[in-house]
């Protein structure tokens, strides 16, 4: 199997607000969009971030069409302190301030307007 691209697709109540949040705070840009759908790309990451509005009739399988509860979107960064300071200063909702785990993971968490939790991490 040759994987040629990677995407993370999240079900949210309002796809446009999550896309705007990821654009503003994380540096993603819109690649394409349609009713109930926004796909974002990032110049420094091979990951496409996709937001789908919950309840879309075209969503398959229907059993997974609810919100993305309990999911962490994690990005590894080079300078956790600088990113934390910048994002706090820009008004991102920080839900977990910087912590360091015993296994040397330094991280903090933010929430977007739909409640998607983003974790930035640096290994120290």
Question: What brief labels describe this structure?
Answer:
124 residues; alpha/beta; 2,3-Dihydroxybiphenyl 1,2-Dioxygenase, domain 1; 4-stranded mixed sheet; globular; Glyoxalase-like domain-containing protein; Glyas_Fos-R_dOase_dom; Glyas_Bleomycin-R_OHBP_Dase; VOC_core
Radius of gyration using CA atoms only:
15 Å
- CATH architecture name: Roll
In N-to-C order, the SSE pattern is EHEEEEHEEE
SSE class? alpha/beta
The CATH class label is Alpha Beta
What portion of the residues fall into strands of 2 or more residues? 35-45%
| Secondary structure tally: strands | 8
Number of helices: 2
Please state the average pLDDT score.
92
Terminus-to-terminus distance: 34 Å
Number of domains: 1
Strand order of the largest sheet: 1-4-3-2
- In CATH, the topology is named 2,3-Dihydroxybiphenyl 1,2-Dioxygenase, domain 1
Q: Give the low-pLDDT segments.
A: none
Give the overall shape, derived from the CA principal axes: globular
CATH homologous superfamily heading: 2,3-Dihydroxybiphenyl 1,2-Dioxygenase, domain 1
**Sheet having the most strands:** 4 strands, mixed
Helix content: 10-25%
